[in-house]
Prior knowledge:
Chain B: Residues 7-247, 263-504 form the ABC transporter domain. Chain B: Keywords: ATP-binding, Nucleotide-binding, Repeat, Sugar transport, Transport. Chain B: InterPro entries: AAA+_ATPase, ABC_carbohydrate_import_ATPase, ABC_transporter-like_ATP-bd, ABC_transporter-like_CS, P-loop_NTPase. Chain B: This is Sugar ABC transporter ATP-binding protein. Chain B: GO terms for molecular function: ATP binding; ATP hydrolysis activity. The complex is a heterodimer. By secondary structure, chain A is mostly helical. Chain A has helices spanning 2-9, 11-36, 44-60, 65-87, 94-116, 143-147, 152-170, 172-182, 184-189, 194-220, 232-242, 247-271, 277-296. In chain A, helix 3 runs antiparallel to helix 4 (65-87). The radius of gyration of chain A is 20 Å and the shape is globular. By secondary structure, chain B is of the alpha/beta class. Chain B folds into 3 domains: 5-244, P-loop containing nucleotide triphosphate hydrolases (Rossmann fold), CATH 3.40.50.300; 258-339 and 426-505, P-loop containing nucleotide triphosphate hydrolases (Rossmann fold, 3-Layer(aba) Sandwich), CATH 3.40.50; 357-424, no CATH class. In chain B, helix 14 packs parallel to helix 15. Chain B starts with a strand and ends in a 5-residue tail after the last helix. The A-B interface holds A 170-173, 175-176, 178-183, 185-192, 300, 302-303, 312, 314 and B 50, 55-57, 79-81, 84, 90, 92, 94, 96-101, 105-106, 108-119, 160.
Amino acid sequence: MMDLLNILLSDSFWAASLRIATPLIFGVLGALICERAGVLNLGIEGIFVVGAMCGWMAVWLGAGLWGGVLFAALAGAFFGLLHAILTVPLGLSQHVSGLGITLFATSVSYYTYRTALPNVSSPPRIEPFQALDIPVLSDLPFLGPVLFQQTALTWLALLMVGLVWYVMNRTALGVAIKAVGDNPDSVDAQGLSVYGLRMGAIVAGSALMALGGAFLTMSAFDAFFFGMVNGRGWVCIALVIFASWRPGKALLGALLFGAFDALQVRLQTEMGALVPGQVFLMAPYILSIIALVIAARSADYPRALLTPWFKGQR
Amino acid sequence: MAELTALRLIGLSKCFGSVIANDNVSLTLAKGEVLALLGENGAGKTTLMNMLFGHYLPDAGRVEVADETGTLHPLPLGHPQAALAAGVGMVHQHFALAENINALDNITLGSEPLLALKRDRRSARAKIEGIIERSGLSAPLNVPVGRLSVGERQRVEILKALYRDARILVLDEPTAVLTPQEADTLFENIKAMTKDGLSVIFISHKLREVLAFSDRIAVLRHGKKVGEMATAEADEKAIARMMVGADTPKVARRDMAPGMPILKLSNVSVGGRSQRDRLKGVNLTVHAHEILGVAGISGNGQSGLANVISGLAQPEGGSLSVNDTLVTRPGPGAMVRAGVGRIPEDRHHEGIVGAMSVAENMVIERLDDPAIQSRGLLKRDAIQANAEKLAKAYDVRGPGVTAPSRLLSGGNIQKLILARVFERGPRLILANQPTRGLDMGAAAEVGRRLLEARARGAGVVLISEDLDEILGLADRVVVIRDGNLVEAGSHDREKIGLMMAGEPA
């Protein structure tokens, strides 16, 4: 019991939680924007892989770290546009299109990687984002290591939470996105474009998802390898329900998951002799399922989620 | 008043596939005038208005709208944005409101630049409050629209149009969901606004309000304009004849003495997540040879009452008996066996299985009948013969009894359900909104069948939002409000309306 308390009070635990949560924050925000507009984006897992691969490769080819971030976002936006065209004006099944995007984007990423580097056995490394060392603030006890020694991408993720909250709650654009996900007719009757709003939301959301992937190769690790996304996209799809489609609760959900994950790593080293390691590995997922069961009972889905809309059919 | 023209529709036509929805329709609307657009379901009223508002692109014809100075300009067709800019506002029959945002946001949606970083909510609110003051149409602005009542939502819809400086207001069946008092208030507000130069077109089925509140009447039938007259010179009979193209036989209703009690609810309560499903200790008796009308504003427990009687909901308290036999284990099967016939509210989803054929749907409530099956195998020939017989007797028209039932029109689906219910000779008939969305001919047929069942000795529970229907058919009227039933004691429209609204009569 003392051990657990020691872990929970250590700054390294909380720093790790925030680090693990960062890609999830990007992913949940991205999924949140898509679903608020009424479109489920199951391409998220594949878009994570694309973001991870493109960000890494751009840096490896000499584009610079921020160049890599930009390239990853553009690649994510491209696959988002594909999903948007298939599901919005063409009105195809959002499940099928999303899963197709995931399979396609994952394979294309691996293919590109293999074609570019046919003969390497160990993945080439890049120089990733370094921890920001903010004078004075970094030296604060506890808060310093937890908050002010993270990388720039973690800060970008936190900034995005605020930005998405502001857009959703304080701007006309946010009102229109929420309305188009609830009742597209309301938007159409007021002379706004349902297709434009939905497609724009999917493209923007997908770009954010790709940043989650880019964080993995450009901040958490320094190389791209197969299977590195490892279901993080699917976790985001679950977390967005836990968050009831609200940015603040999305941050909370991502942090909670990050904390579970950081905790299981530490418990594994502490108690690995007693309990098989796999039990700890699955703990975050089991806890997420429990949290979801509780939260999803009262979930207030966007009413038009999954429902295609066609002009002139009322 | 100088007759300034506000709007001209010239030769509008629209086809959907092989169906002609509008055929060369022309209309003129004067400034400050209230024009009522009448016609049966499928006559093309809504299509015409949707073309005016830009939801549909006409195949032929044009529209001219007057600007502030009274000069007519051609309206670019097929763009709601253009219609809004020209001063045309439309209130749809099915509200086009987003329920997760508040009324203020719904009203201002689309009138602000989307990419602006800040919104000017204060001046928007001031403008809306000004409109509310002038028009008398009030609604809470800060609450998510999902929590507003139907009447409030409708006022939000009208405010939406007025906020966009509409000079021409189109209302598609505005009173379908309102109490008589709410409807009267609405029209009084509209009348007041026409004094300031607003022109109004409203679509309605209800002759009473058309005669009371319009200046002029235009009638559509089968997509064509078949008549136009000043309301002052119109009479109910002439309009009805124009709408259906012939005299409709008024449903003859003979007085009858009620017989023994068929259905008894004693202190029945039903829980449920929403108000529409809840019943709070209801007592109700329906006799043989009696039609009991249940009046009320939608969402006051009608679903709960219907679900209890059809066995879909389990009462939490109280008891339920049919034919003096206590129903101990209520369930849909038990109620069907006890002799309850159900005409459900949502005929497309709860009345039929759309993917199954018309013939199969006709026997779906009697699958244990040896005439239909033996040892679990269906007798296809018997089912087919039964369907052909019923389709003829009940005039179910469509692509044939072997076609999937979803291909039938709404009126024919209802006839299918009537055939299925009445063929079993039920002791009690639950008719929930049986004529909603049906045209006058089909509605009259439903009324005739219900009266026939009453003459045969059945009891009927008629739940309807159309007070005229209840007053025309029911022997006795109860009002449902907030999960409670109150005996109306009379057929007085004014009194029942007040009871529906929850005011002491």
